[in-house]
Amino acid sequence: MELKNINFSYENNKPILKDFNLSIQENKITSIIGPSGVGKTTLLNLIANVIQPISGEIIDKPNITSYLFQDDRLINEITVYKNLQLVLLSVLKDKNKINEEIKKYLNLVSLDDCANKYPNELSGSMRRRIALIRAFIYPSKLLLMDEPFKGLDLQLKQEIMETFVELYNFNPKTILFVTHDIDESIKISNSILIMSNSPMKIMKNIFIKENIDNRNIYTKEFNDIRREIYLQTKKWK
């Protein structure tokens, strides 16, 4: 997918994006780090067709997109099974196939005993993992993630990120991941885009060759990457 010469601003405001270009690798995880309020979520909304650019074009964008937010957005009035069924009914008509898919994904992350429970009966960790399943079970080729691990304590974040890696390995998608957390970006990204102040531009694109499975982010290699990201973010001031 490629964004070419994208221009966008909200009415009567300064430009958010000006002649913005970005090429996103298929089935890879690209994270975005940038100053607060610079337009990272706006960029996701443009890709998701929630808003339209003033000019420019998005080429080879997948027709179906999944979106993962900071909160789980599960529907408390229906069971876990029906929460997952809801996203599949628009694309699958075979009830047996839907049932197979739901069972397969719940079993993959050891949550098969939660199918008939309601979201408010689950722990915070379980709810987040169900939200991840919902994003991956939907037959999209593109997944947009807007700080989905924000506000989690260290242990819970580790659990959720491990589930994310399991699901990604099982069903790879092209993923664009907005975060403020340097360690999050290093842990699960194939490339890290560091953005400038407004209008948003790409200051640095850091590629990571190592597989995301069991990645130890405290080696010298990753400490060097962490230092490089930090030095780039110092330019925001």
Rough outline: globular
List the strand order in the largest sheet. 5-6-7-3-8-9
SSE pattern, N- to C-terminal: EEEHEEHHHEHEHEEH
The parts where pLDDT drops under 50 for at least 5 residues are none
Beta-strand percent range: 15-25%
Tally of separate helices: 7
What would you call the structural class?
alpha/beta
Q: State the distance separating the first and last CA atoms.
A: 31 Å
Q: Whole-number average pLDDT?
A: 93
Number of strands: 9
Q: Report the C-alpha radius of gyration, rounded.
A: 18 Å
Largest sheet: 6 strands, mixed
Question: Can you describe this structure?
Answer:
35% of the residues lie in helices and 21% in strands. The chain is α/β, with parallel strands linked by helices and 237 residues long. The strands form two sheets. Strands 5-6-7-3-8-9 form a six-stranded mixed sheet, sandwiched between helices. The protein has a three-stranded antiparallel sheet with strand order 2-1-4, with no helix packed on it. A hairpin with an 8-residue loop joins strand 1 and strand 2 (17-23). Helix 4 (124-137) packs parallel to helix 5. It is globular and about 50 Å long. The two termini are 31 Å apart.
